[in-house]
Amino acid sequence: VETLADASKKARKKVGTAPSYGVMASGEEDYLSLLASEFNYITPENVAKWGPLQPVSANEWDFSAFDSMLAVTQDNKQKVKGRALVWHRQAPNFVNEQVDAATLAQMIDNHITTTMQYYAGEIYAWDVVNEVMGDDANYRQSVFYKKLGKSYIADAYISARAADPRAKLFYNDYGIDSINAKSDAVYTMMAELIADGVPIDGIGFQMHLDAASAPSTEEMTANLQRFADLGLSVNISEIDVRISSLSWDDVTNLAIQQQVYHRAVNACMNVRQCDAFTLWGFTDKYTWIDGEFGEDDPLIYDDEYQRKPAYFGVADGL
Ligand code: XIL
């Protein structure tokens, strides 16, 4: 194949990555050129999150880093997903237990409205709320849930639709990649939101996978399809595949990783409403996995920007 972006056009799916603003700003040439050539969909890794956009106070926004990233994506003619407007991690310091419920609701609405109006027309999709379901399949006990109950979720989508009616509005979560207790709980939540007429267009499945325990194509397909059958657009939103838990030789480990990527692409290909396949980074040189889970090589390019077997696992599936 030439590039993933070429392959994805035939497949009629977007193929995405989540670039680091810091690395982009450093001007590393291999990074920037692959970012431009391989992908047609961009999700900022961090600069469009609530905390980074409101680093100082509740009435001030700093759009400068996201703006610079958008200058590049516009040059590259790439679509963009902004995120995450409401998330319990990387939220501003002023969002905390000391704030009363009415003020917190106001902060959420202000942030969504100001940010989405500022970028109206430029952003293809937004993750409006992220990771509200806990690993125990109950609503996560975040500051938002504790102060406001689950109503803040519907309210966030209503604010978002009003702020930029052209943007597609997504929910996003991890650990919901196949049918399990947590994805069942998210399925129930999405069905309720839709039944209540809440404006929501789609759902992203993060797929931070461990090669040792990754689901089969059939399991992922069945899960994506049931959400699609609710009338939602679905996408794989943050895939990476850890291999440090495997104990075969390197060649075998990389071949297993290739298969896991291939399974996930196939699941997206199997579901008509799966519109995008986004990787959380692209080179093993820069991956959040090293900091969060320990040293690993979860992506499709190696540290020297050479294509790994995993690259072909994606490309051959598209
Ligand atoms: C991660 C980023 O990659 C890190 O740089 C940051 O320190 C923490 O967040 N789920 C998400 C993403 O929704 O926003 C996370 O990104 C990865 C897990």
From TrEMBL:
The keyword Repeat applies. Keywords: Carbohydrate metabolism, Glycosidase, Hydrolase, Polysaccharide degradation, Repeat, Signal, Xylan degradation. The chain holds residues 42 to 359 of 978 of the full protein. It comes from Shewanella japonica. This is Beta-xylanase. Residues 1-317 form the GH10 domain. Belongs to the glycosyl hydrolase 10 (cellulase F) family.
